[in-house]
Design a protein that fits this description.
With 409 residues, this protein is an alpha/beta fold. The chain has two domains: 140 residues, no CATH class; 210 residues, 3-Layer(aba) Sandwich (Rossmann fold), CATH 3.40.50. The protein is 31% helix and 22% strand. The strands form four sheets. It has an eleven-stranded mixed β-sheet with strand order 5-4-1-6-7-18-17-14-10-8-9, sandwiched between helices. A hairpin with a 3-residue loop joins strand 15 and strand 16. Helix 8 runs parallel beside helix 14.
Length: 409
């Protein structure tokens, strides 16, 4: 029956048709001083059996390339996905000087980029969990942010397709009332937008900075003739998300969370688990999980599994101003199964997400600077790069200015 429906359904065959991207088309869209880099994670196959070792390669295309240049990264084992990434995360978290990550993840590639000022970078595998601009060159002391303009894309086939956006509508969420029935007494606050405890065992700390952020962004948008709809406090509910109708920009400032899979599970369950174990906390979440009996309502958590069905087909940008919203289950060649992928599946063309726990005040400053520049230039990528450079002047360590990553077409 499925086969019959597939054959008879209008335009079904064209939907399934996969066209191999032409590297020459990518090359022809590049300007002098630009390069496109596609990372590939793979295992070698010897006749029948695949090797246990994990390999990484970078395919580099420049505007004058006669063929793609291939760079094999020097670590022909699992080190990049174990010791190297652990070292990188610790350096970021504890704000330590990092003399290794640049060499591990970038130097072999960077040596092939003489004269290149801008890179369109399509990540794979562990590179989804790295904010490349935060890598510090141990020889010069400069961050990659200052050496080259790196713009993440879902695929290098999208090089040259970026256009300035025309923003007319926006929807903003901030400072949800995680507990709305008044039983918890005085609210606790925190300076981080993360939540890792059991929702039932403790109240979720309030985030005053998210309201300041939304109000400031709302004023910026109004001053530029953009109509914002803001949902704060009790109104920042899960139900409001299901009523969304293609805003040009969707901005969400709240607690985010990501929980790793525990134990050995099947590949299919890993994907599903990643989608339900990453999400955003909204109004009423504490009431729901502390109630004596579950209510027949939404639980106040927008999971990635739920987010992928939102109506965002014509949305230019989704900004997840929360912790660890760029994390999830990394699948070679498929990206990250989590919030980032979910909002893209819902139709959003670009998204800004975070790779680690973010500071409330630093995030507020980052977002306000970004929207001021975006309304001026209408260019998402250049505005994001400008914002990283500006915030770096105030907060010198990458922990503050490098947490967010922009990826899109």
């Amino acid at each position: 029956m499925e086969n019959k429906l597939a054959n008879e359904a209008k335009d079904f065959k064209s939907t399934l048709q996969v066209n191999t991207p032409d590297w020459k088309k990518t090359r022809n869209n590049l300007k002098p001083g630009e390069a496109a880099i596609e990372i590939v994670r793979f295992r070698l196959r010897d006749q029948i059996y695949y090797s246990d070792s994990i390999y990484y390669a970078a395919y580099i295309v420049k505007h004058d390339s006669k063929w793609p240049e291939v760079v094999y990264l020097p670590e022909f084992d699992k080190r990049l996905e174990s010791a190297a990434i652990s070292q990188y995360k610790n350096a970021i978290r504890y704000q330590l000087k990092d003399n290794h990550s640049y060499n591990d993840f970038w130097r072999p590639i960077g040596e092939k980029l003489e004269g290149i000022k801008r890179v369109f970078f399509s990540p794979d595998g562990i590179y989804h969990l790295i904010s490349l601009p935060t890598l510090q060159n141990p020889e010069t002391g400069s961050y990659l942010l200052d050496e080259i303009d790196i713009q993440n894309v879902t695929s290098t086939r999208y090089v040259g397709s970026t256009e300035k956006i025309s923003v007319k509508t926006s929807t903003l969420f901030g400072r949800p009332s995680y507990k709305i029935d008044g039983r918890s007494g005085e609210k606790t606050t925190t300076n981080q937008r993360s939540f890792v405890q059991n929702f039932k065992g403790a109240d979720v700390a309030d985030l005053p900075g998210t309201k300041e952020e939304v109000v400031a962004i709302e004023e910026i948008l109004k001053a530029n003739n953009i109509s914002p709809r803001s949902f704060l406090g009790n109104e920042a509910s899960e139900n409001k998300f299901y009523q969304l109708d293609n805003p040009d920009i969707l901005h969400i400032a709240t607690h985010g969370y990501w929980s790793e899979n525990e134990g050995a599970v099947s590949a299919g369950y890993q994907v599903f688990n990643a989608l339900v174990n990453s999400g955003l906390l909204l109004s009423g979440v504490v009431d729901y999980y502390q109630a004596p009996e579950p209510a027949f309502t939404n639980d106040g958590i927008l999971t990635a599994y739920e987010a992928q069905n939102l109506n965002l087909e014509n949305t230019d940008l989704v900004v997840l101003s929360a912790c660890e919203t760029g994390l999830g289950n990394v699948s070679a060649g498929e990206g990250v199964y989590g919030l980032q992928r979910a909002f893209r599946a819902a139709g959003a063309k670009s998204s800004i997400t975070s790779l680690w726990k973010v500071d409330d005040e630093g995030t507020r400053d980052f977002m306000i600077t970004f929207y001021k520049k975006l309304t001026e230039t209408k260019d998402i990528r250049s505005s994001f790069h400008f914002t990283q450079q500006e915030i770096k002047k105030k907060y010198q360590t990458p922990y503050y200015w490098g947490a967010f990553v922009l990826i899109g077409n």
